[in-house]
Write a structure and sequence with these properties.
Elements lengths: L4 H5 L2 H16 L5 E4 L7 E7 L10 E7 L10 E4 L28 H14 L9 H9 L1 H15 L25 H7 L3 H15 L1
Antiparallel strand pairs: 1-2, 2-3, 3-4
Length: 208
């Protein structure tokens, strides 16, 4: 299978090293990051990253993947966002551009460092190495518009289940909220029953 080709090409000691690191990441994930492993292909590693507070991505849950090629760890992994995001360092196809995955890569850095760097990229984008030129330009020239666009795509594509409203319970239909003085009080405020009773007394007297 093509998906397992990288595993077959990796030396056994590298496979053990990757599996050990992935197991540690699963047991002790970085804050705001959840690891999703592929037991059939450990070179295909996915994760979800919570949008950091104080950024246009806050409240979002972004899924991304790391792909380890046959030359890992001599060569850096490739990183992609699977969730659509408006960010200077993420191309329309989801490719992530960050120095640690290029010229600053060192084999000893490890996958945890890569994931943390990508999370930090949501806090501090780098418009100088933009893959999305429009996002990079807006970040520098019109931050309000950049933040608005980023929040909009976060709302549409990255809202996690934790942020979805809870479904109504099936035990009893929800009643509409009561007005401050209550529906019965409002009804009686306009009731004309006292005059009606007075009129009934007059009609009774006429009959006599």
């Amino acid at each position: 299978m093509a998906a397992n080709a990288n595993v077959e090409n990796l030396p056994p000691h590298i496979i053990r090293q990757v599996w050990k690191e992935v197991s540690t990441l699963s047991a002790e994930p970085p804050e705001g990051i959840k690891i999703i492993t592929n037991e059939e292909d450990i070179t295909d590693l996915q994760a979800t990253i919570e949008g950091p507070d104080g950024t246009p991505y806050a409240g979002g849950l972004f899924r991304m993947k790391l792909v380890l090629n046959k030359d890992f760890p001599s060569c850096p992994p490739k990183a992609f966002f699977l969730t659509r995001i408006f960010h200077p360092n993420v191309s329309p196809s989801g490719e992530i551009c960050v120095n640690i995955l290029q010229r600053d890569w060192r084999p000893e850095l490890g996958l945890r460092h890569v994931l943390l760097t990508i999370k930090c990229l949501l806090i501090q984008p780098n418009p100088e190495s933009a893959l999305n030129e429009e996002a990079g330009r807006l970040l520098l020239e019109e931050y309000g518009e950049y933040a608005s666009r980023a929040r909009l795509l976060t709302e549409i594509h990255a809202r996690g289940r934790a942020h979805e409203p809870s479904p109504p319970t099936a035990s009893a239909p929800a009643s509409p909220p009561l007005p401050p003085d209550g529906p019965l009080a409002k009804k009686h405020a306009g009731d004309k029953r006292p005059p009606k009773k007075k009129g009934e007394k007059k009609r009774a007297l006429r009959r006599l």
